[in-house]
Design a protein that fits this description.
This protein is mainly alpha-helical. 74% of the residues lie in helices and 0% in strands.
């Protein structure tokens, strides 16, 4: 008997089965590799902070927490929009999917612009890679993450264009899931960075 004849909806072809990762396998290989790299950088940051608590405390105290919090809200809201886009395309609501993706793109671009402004201001007031350890880690981690954001914005722009052009549908939207998986990685990494750089304080 056909499942539809019994009143039971057949599963969609590209919806991940229980325990399966959304999107293409290649993006998850990339994501796990990037997470491993950032984990090593976070560990190095933690060791350096433990060895030089005073220097790190002074460096953190000079950062603008208001800007950091605004950047966090922009990126988290952008991630929410991507999640809504994935839900919309799974329900075959392509115009809604495209709108959510464009909103995510605008919010992500807002984060990138604000972070660029913050980094420019930090360098203008004397921060440099050749400065103290905190400055080196802060600038390196921030710039490395910003490069991932910019790459994510390119991916979101392409996927948003395809969604607006009707290239996806309920049974075929792995591109949206792949873009969403990458963007959620960017969100997660920033949350860790925000905590390490702006919120947590080294023990004296």
């Amino acid at each position: 008997m056909n499942p539809g004849d019994a009143g039971i909806a057949a599963p969609r072809s590209d919806a991940p089965s229980d325990g399966a990762l959304p999107g293409d396998l290649a993006i998850w290989v990339f994501i796990f590799a990037e997470l491993a790299v950032f984990a090593l950088l976070f560990a190095a940051f933690a060791f350096a902070r433990a060895a030089h608590p005073g220097s790190f405390a002074r460096g953190q105290g000079a950062l603008d927490r208001g800007l950091g919090l605004t950047e966090t809200l922009l990126l988290i809201t952008s991630g929410y929009c991507v999640a809504r886009a994935s839900r919309a395309v799974a329900r075959d609501l392509l115009p809604a999917c495209a709108r959510w993706l464009r909103a995510a793109l605008a919010l992500g671009a807002g984060f990138a612009l604000l972070k660029t402004f913050e980094l420019h201001a930090d360098v203008a007031r004397g921060m440099s890679l050749a400065g103290n350890l905190f400055d080196m880690f802060y600038l390196s981690l921030s710039f490395f993450h910003l490069m991932h954001v910019l790459m994510g914005l390119v991916i979101l722009a392409v996927v948003a264009w395809k969604a607006g052009a009707g290239r996806y549908r309920a049974g075929e939207h792995s591109g949206v899931e792949t873009a969403g998986s990458y963007w959620h990685m960017v969100d997660l990494l920033w949350l860790v960075l925000f905590f390490l750089l702006y919120v947590s304080h080294p023990s004296s």
